Every structure is written in structure tokens, then in C-alpha cells.
């Protein structure tokens, strides 16, 4: 657990502390981030690849690596992804250096002991505005590529803001007061969120996670009309008929530093992040 925690912190500090803001206009910072992620994959023995795409006359890169599973290929490919860009002016420690850190740690753990399913780990560029929720997102480009290749997917998991937790009463907000009847009012849990079509996948991973990890987890499968349900890269995979959900600390419903200059490395809880990633790896090994 100590190594996981240390590695998570190192990645978050490098992306958000050393490189800093990584908006779509900051192509040099995005390239440095892509190179760091490639190095992370390579250090685990992977042969990372870049998927190149353009927007507004600039070139951007999705970086991905794959580890073959121990089970039958018919089990389908599991895609785990996280975006590495930020909004302008934010160093993006939680949004989304935390997700990239989790991605690289899961890749390291899987390189040492592969899961039953073949896993593709993908770091996406361009999730944030002005391309947010459009076909110009890096995740949309990648999902379309998989569809065009005829890939069979077991599902996709988006790692979207994993590091901010609070234990004070009333620290967890929701899109409606009705949620308070069913969900905690303290922001000390992790959330698995998907659409109705992805319910089976979400519940399977949630069940497996609860069986091997004591960290509180709440799941929700709901229509996109509830604000936040489709606010990440999993949405791109829905567009091509793939089941997908996101793992999130609930972003602006909890973290006051969301999309601001205050989203810095020292605001995150790396011990809880390590507990999450270790538990998630064990959960994925069981499905």
C-alpha cells in the first residue's frame, strides 16, 4: 500500500505541480504529460502507443497500453481510461491528475499480475471545454476507433477525480435534495456512476469492490438528465453502444477547488486514493 500511495502522489505532483495547467491551448504541457505517461507505461514493461488526432489546427495524443488477460479472448476487452488535460488556469490535481495516477498504478499492478480480462489502459487528451461532450473529445476518437475495428468490449471504466474526501457532516452535495434520502451527507466515499444501460457492469464491479475493500462506495445508474451522470469520458463510449461507468469523488458536488487554481496536490488524500486503487485492482481480478 505504501508504494501505491507514493506512486500516486508522485504522478499527481508531477502533472499538476511540475507541469501545471494542461488546457487545450497548452500543447507543450500536454505533450510533456503524454511523454510522462508513456514513460510510466514503459517502466512497467508495456509498449505504449499514441493515437494522434487534431483539433483547431493542433495535434493531440491519446496514449494507451494493453496487457493480455489470462482468460479467453471472448471475455471481451476492458478499457480503463482517464483524461490528462485540464481547464485553463487550473493545475488539475484532482481533475484529473488523480485519475491518471490511478490509471498508471492499475497498469503497474496488472503488469505484475495480469487480470483475467485483457485490459487497455488509455490516457485521453481533450476532455475539458471547449470540446467537452462533443465528438472532438479524445475519448470519442478512441471509442470510435474501437467500434470501427469491431472490438468486443466487456466494458469501460472512466477514472474521473479520485482524490478529494471530507468527513464533515453536510460536506457532500447532490443535484437534488431527494438524493439525501438515499446517499450519505459526508463526502468520505467513492462513487460508481453510469447510465441505465451500464447497470449490470456498474453493479458487478461495485459488488466485487465491496467484497474486497472496506472503503465506502455508492453506486448510481441513472439517465443523463441528472447533472453529472455523463460528465466524463465514459459518455463517449455510450455513444457507440458500449457499457461504461465512471469512478469519481463526485467533483463539484464535494470538491470546492473544482476547475480552479486551488486544485493542487496538497488538497488530496493519497491514503484513500491508495485504498481505492488497491481495492479496485482486486475487484477487477474477481470479475
How is this structure best described in words?
The longest helix has 20 residues, at 93-112. The radius of gyration is 17 Å and the shape is globular. The protein has an 8-stranded mixed sheet with strand order 1-2-4-3-5-8-6-7, sandwiched between helices. It has one domain: Aminopeptidase (3-Layer(aba) Sandwich), CATH 3.40.630. The model has no long low-confidence stretch (mean pLDDT 97). It has 287 residues and is of the alpha/beta class. The protein has helices spanning 2-19, 27-43, 93-112, 138-149, 199-212, 234-238, 270-285; strands at residues 49-55, 58-67, 77-83, 119-124, 153-159, 190-194, 217-221, 244-248.
Provide a short characterization of the protein structure.
This protein has 287 residues and is α/β, with parallel strands linked by helices. It contains seven helices and eight strands; from the N terminus they run ααβββαβαββαβαβα. The two termini are 22 Å apart.
Indicate the topology.
Blueprint: H1 2-19, H2 27-43, E1 49-55, E2 58-67, E3 77-83, H3 93-112, E4 119-124, H4 138-149, E5 153-159, E6 190-194, H5 199-212, E7 217-221, H6 234-238, E8 244-248, H7 270-285
Parallel strand pairs: 3-4, 3-5, 5-8, 6-7
Antiparallel strand pairs: 1-2, 2-4, 6-8
Helix pairs in contact: 1-3, 1-7, 3-7, 5-7
CATH class: Alpha Beta
Q: Summarize the main sheet.
A: 8 strands, mixed
* Number of beta-strand segments: 8
Q: Count of DSSP helices?
A: 7
- Known CATH architecture: 3-Layer(aba) Sandwich
Low-confidence runs of at least 5 consecutive residues: none
Amino acid at each position: 500500500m505504501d508504494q501505491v500511495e507514493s506512486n500516486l502522489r508522485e504522478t499527481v505532483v508531477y502533472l499538476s505541480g511540475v507541469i501545471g495547467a494542461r488546457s487545450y491551448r497548452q500543447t507543450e504541457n500536454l505533450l510533456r504529460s503524454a511523454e510522462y505517461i508513456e514513460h510510466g507505461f514503459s517502466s512497467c514493461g508495456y509498449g505504449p502507443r499514441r493515437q494522434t488526432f487534431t483539433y483547431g489546427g493542433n495535434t493531440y495524443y491519446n496514449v494507451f497500453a494493453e496487457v493480455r488477460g489470462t482468460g479467453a479472448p471472448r471475455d471481451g476487452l476492458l478499457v480503463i481510461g482517464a483524461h490528462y488535460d485540464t481547464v485553463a488556469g487550473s493545475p488539475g490535481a484532482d481533475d484529473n491528475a488523480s485519475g491518471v495516477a490511478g490509471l498508471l498504478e492499475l497498469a503497474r499492478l496488472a503488469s505484475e499480475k495480469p487480470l483475467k480480462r485483457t485490459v487497455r489502459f488509455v490516457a485521453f487528451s481533450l476532455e475539458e471545454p471547449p470540446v467537452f461532450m462533443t465528438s472532438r473529445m479524445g475519448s470519442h476518437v478512441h471509442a470510435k476507433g474501437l467500434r470501427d475495428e469491431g472490438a468486443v468490449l466487456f466494458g469501460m471504466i472512466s477514472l474521473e477525480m479520485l482524490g478529494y474526501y471530507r468527513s464533515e457532516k453536510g460536506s457532500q452535495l447532490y443535484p437534488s435534495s431527494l438524493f439525501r434520502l438515499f446517499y450519505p451527507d459526508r463526502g468520505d466515499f467513492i462513487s460508481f456512476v453510469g447510465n441505465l444501460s451500464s447497470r449490470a457492469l456498474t453493479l458487478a464491479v461495485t459488488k466485487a469492490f465491496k467484497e474486497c475493500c472496506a472503503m465506502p462506495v455508492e453506486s448510481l445508474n441513472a439517465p443523463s438528465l441528472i447533472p453529472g451522470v455523463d460528465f466524463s469520458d465514459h459518455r463517449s463510449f455510450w455513444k457507440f453502444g458500449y457499457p461504461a461507468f465512471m469512478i469519481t469523488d463526485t467533483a463539484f458536488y464535494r470538491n470546492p477547488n473544482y476547475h480552479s487554481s486551488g486544485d493542487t496536490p496538497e488538497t488530496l488524500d493519497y491514503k484513500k486514493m491508495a485504498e481505492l486503487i488497491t481495492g479496485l485492482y482486486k475487484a477487477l481480478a474477481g470479475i
